[in-house]
Design a protein that fits this description.
The chain is of the alpha+beta class and 147 residues long. The protein has four helices and five strands. It starts with a strand and ends with a helix.
C-alpha cells in the first residue's frame, strides 16, 4: 500500500529594507512605476515554506518541522533579517527585490536543501510583504505539467 502524501508548512518572520529601482528605466520612469517603493523603506516579512512528502509508518512525519525551521533560519533568516535586500544579501545581488523576485530566489536557495530529506520536495514558497500582500511560487514547472 502506498504511503499518504502530506504537505507541511513552517512559517518564519524577518524584517528587511529595500527599494525598487530598475536599472533599465530612467529615474522619472522608476518613480512613476514604483511610486513610494522607489524610496528606501522596510517591511516585516513572513515566509511560509511548504514541503510535500510521504508519511513513513516508522516516524509518522514528512520531515521534522523543527529541522525545517532550523534550515530556514540558517539559509534565509540569518542572511536577510535586518539587512538591506538591495545591498547586503549576496544571493539577491543585481536583482530588483520585489516579493516575486525574492520568493524565487528563496526557492532556488532552499530547494536543494529540502531534497536532502528522503522523499521530500519543496512544494510552495509563500512570501508576505505585509498583512495584505503576499506572493506564491510553486517552482519552475507549473503543477499541471508535473502531474
Ligand atoms: Ni517595499
Amino acid at each position: 500500500m502506498s504511503l499518504p502524501t502530506v504537505e507541511i508548512t513552517r512559517r518564519v518572520e524577518f524584517s528587511a529594507a529595500h527599494r525598487l529601482c530598475s536599472p533599465q528605466l530612467s529615474e522619472a520612469e522608476n518613480r512613476r512605476l514604483y511610486g513610494p517603493c522607489y524610496e528606501h523603506h522596510g517591511h516585516n516579512y513572513a515566509l511560509e515554506v511548504t514541503v510535500r512528502g510521504p508519511v513513513p509508518t516508522e516516524t509518522g512525519m514528512v520531515m521534522d518541522l523543527n529541522r525545517l525551521g532550523m534550515l530556514l533560519d540558517e539559509e534565509v533568516v540569518s542572511v536577510v533579517d535586518h539587512k538591506h535586500l538591495n545591498h547586503d544579501v549576496p544571493f539577491l545581488e543585481g536583482l530588483i527585490p520585489t516579493a516575486e523576485v525574492v520568493a524565487v530566489a528563496f526557492w532556488e536557495r532552499l530547494q536543494p536543501r529540502i531534497e536532502e530529506f528522503e522523499g521530500c520536495r519543496l512544494d510552495r514558497i509563500r512570501l508576505f510583504e505585509s498583512r495584505e500582500n503576499f506572493v506564491d511560487y510553486h517552482g519552475p514547472t507549473d503543477r499541471a505539467s508535473r502531474g
